[in-house]
Amino acid sequence: QVQLVESGGGSVQPGGSLRLSCAASGSISSIYAMGWYRQAPGKQRELVAIIIKGGATNYADSVKGRFTISREDAKNTVYLQMNSLKPEDTAVYYCNAPTIYSRNYWGQGTQVTVSS
Predict the structure, then answer these.
(1) Nearest CA among 60, 55, 48, 57 for reference residue 20
(2) Strand locations in 1-116, DSSP E?
(3) What is the pLDDT of residues 17-35, one digit of tens each?
(4) What is the mean pLDDT of the chain?
(5) 3-class state of residue 43 by DSSP
(6) Could you give the angle at the alpha carbon of 88 between the alpha carbons of 82 and 94, nearest 5°?
């Protein structure tokens, strides 16, 4: 089992920044990647960014150059630094951790609202 706890969401004006955190616990060694997804009202959940165990990263085109995913292995934590936020970034952001046992774990979600 893997538990994921997110933090760092909130409200910000356009152009502002937020940093999301996702702390993992439990069967850490089974995790081979960690990612951030988001779901806006009336839309499907979409991948925002992912970091593979080896360190490779991938981003949605809509956030490239504005968002950065990183990790701190000593704390089993993944971060999503979000800069130059836009109203269209408003969504519930979820942390995700797929494992080598074909299990897929999700955090509880954290709301990000970008509005003037």
Answers:
(1) 48
(2) 2-7, 10-12, 18-26, 33-39, 46-52, 57-59, 67-72, 77-82, 91-98, 104-106, 110-114
(3) 999 999 999 988 889 999 9
(4) 96
(5) coil
(6) 55
